[in-house]
Amino acid sequence: MFDSHCHPTDTDNPLGVVQSAIASGVGSLLACGYNAQSNEAVLNLRDQLPGLPIAIGLHPWFATEAIGGVTELIVNSFPVAIGECGLDAAVDESTAPRMMQRKVFETQLEIAGQMKLPVSVHSRRAVAAVFDMVREYPNVRGVMHAFGGSYEQAKLFVDRGWLIGFGGVITRRNAHRVRGIARRLPLEAMVLETDAPAIGLEGVEVPNVRPAHLPRIAAALAELRGVDVSELVEATDKNAGRLFGSKVFRWTTVY
Ligand SMILES: [Zn+2]
Asked: Which mean pLDDT values do the consecutive 10-residue runs of the chain (255 residues) have?
């Protein structure tokens, strides 16, 4: 079982958070950075857990930070993905000007194409704008993490070989739209994620969410699909391996 998007470094005890995830049946996870400080923390965590899959990137909220330092890290630190990156139209224009958001996202898509790395994409009220940018980079694949668009929009990404990340929201019975999308998309297009500690699930509120809660998300998605959890996990792991490389599952055997 693979947590395709989480932030263990946003907790007091990143190492313990990863270890408890593994103990809870999460086979592996992608620890995502999002700004200079968080990228550094993610790299430190990988020093403690050699081989830990990490993503290095600049989140749209931090678009005013220097992108140069981030691209240098991406080039030199062997992440398995670029991210968290993307566009956010809900954030204040003065905090993260749209122009700068587009520029730093573009830079990261560019590097993703050059380095043949997948991207982990944040998109809030910006799915159409993200798609317009992504289609300029036909060789770049990625995950639309915590997808908030429509089924038709999800399909546009899936048709380009992208994956859709499903997290804690699908455990909420009233989340009709995203649950509907989770039912309809092909299983080959889906990955699991917690975005811990940033997105809650039924009965576990932010900031108490951990990658260790991933089995509950897997169970909710399996129920929605009417398949066994084991079948669901096998399929989503296969999808993650296809995008991020099968090496993301190999490191934990060391511990
Ligand atoms: Zn995130």
From this structure: 98 97 96 98 97 98 96 97 97 95 98 98 97 98 97 98 98 97 98 97 96 98 98 98 96 66
Interval between CA 160 and ligand 1 midpoint (Å) = 22
Q: How far is the CA of 62 from the centre of ligand 1 (A)?
A: 13
> Is the Cα torsion angle 132, 136, 139, 142 positive or negative in sign?
negative
Residue 120 alpha carbon to ligand 1 centre in Å: 9
- From ligand 1's centre to the CA of 250, what distance in Å? 23
Expressed in angstroms and rounded, the spacing between residue 118 Cα and the centre of ligand 1 is: 15
How far does the centroid of ligand 1 lie from the alpha carbon of residue 123, in Å? 10
Name the pTM for this structure. Answer: 0.97
Which domains are delineated in the chain? 2-254 (3.20.20.140)
CB 251 within 8 A of CB 53: yes
Cα–Cα distance, 199 to 168 (Å, whole number): 6
